[in-house]
Amino acid sequence: MHELSVCGALIEQVSALAAQRGAALVRRITIEVGPLSGVDPLLLQAAFCVLRAGSCAAEADLAIDTPDVRICCIACAAVTSTAPNRLVCAQCGGMRSRVLQGDELRLRRVELVVEGLPRLDPNDAQPAPPMQFH
Amino acid sequence: MCIDCGCAVPPAPEPDVVASPRGASHIDVLQDLLAANDRQAAHNREHFDAHGVFVVNLMSGPGAGKTALLEATILALRDRLRIAVIEGDLETDNDAARIRAHGVPAIQITTVTGCHLDAALVHRALHALPLEGLDLLFIENVGNLVCPAGFDLGQHRNVTLLSTTDGDDKPAKYPVIFRASDLVVLSKVDLLDVIDDFDPLRAVAAVRALGRDTPVVPTAARRTPTIGAWLAWLDQELGAHRAARSAGARPGPSAPRERRAAAGTGHAAQG
Q1: What CATH number matches the domain at A3-68+102-113, 3.30.360.10, 3.30.1140.32, 3.40.50.920, 3.30.2320.50?
Q2: Which of A30, B18, B148, B234 is deepest in the core (most CB within 10 A)?
Q3: Which pTM does this prediction carry?
Q4: ipTM score assigned to the predicted complex
Q5: In chain B, which among 161-220 make CB contacts under 8 A with chain A?
């Protein structure tokens, strides 16, 4: 259940980003969790439901993208999609491969709740542009 | 890097985001979720390298024989190498006591509920160890084939034990940890005579299927220890590590996380 540790690290990163932008709340977080990351997306989602309480992500959704495993054969350079426990070349049978995709464990996007007027930095000469919501 | 315990927390870098318009409602980031652990691990590695210590992280499921292998290894090497051990367990300091009985310093980390060691725990332990003059430090991770795989501790090599009592398909069931290994130790091979459902060739094939051509060495650590191939690998890797250090190389993490490594701590786009 190391997903709790991973989720704690996620919330710390998101909180730092939100604080940097002066946002009190986060609307949605998107992460990538590949099969070779060793992290179970469902357990991570469950951990998030517990750990988000009291943080800026208390009302946030967690979207988890799960990319397939893709490898590149070191012998013949063929690129193939494969299972996490079958990382050999399907083309030439080469026994050594490089993982191109599928071991991701990373934060991709944080969507913030930006309320009221944008805060002005006293050092900024220009007023802030209008808010944008996506 | 720090001289003493003043370094408990490495400086946290600013979140990895480029400037975006004030009021923008989303931030695109490409930051590894374990970036903080990886920074702490790199810091641990600086400590180890400053003292010329070669560090091996031993992983396996519970009961595969990590401590027994360490005991036999200490008996074989203690006359020519100075060894220490960091032990990770949920509870008890039984394993550290077994190591200390051989006259080798051992620090026990009890994680209580934690299912793996992380770099911060190892950092605390390394300050309790006499790193000066050490040649070899073993970190015996918590017995678990899942969780320890993702956490860099600052080690130079990862070794995973696959016991003949585990089942020969474990590398296919737990590909992440076996792929992260620089060596697989097939332990308890003296039991092969009485275990009829473990085929060493099938085990090796399952390791080979993970695409790294990882060496597999057989060992038996109890009764009459047969650990020659393991000791030969250790000597070879210690020699290679020292040669690389002499040539000015800065060792990186041992685990092959190509994609994550390539992503680094991320380059962010604005939202």
Answers
A1: 3.30.2320.50
A2: B148
A3: 0.87
A4: 0.83
A5: 171-173, 175-177, 179, 206, 208-213
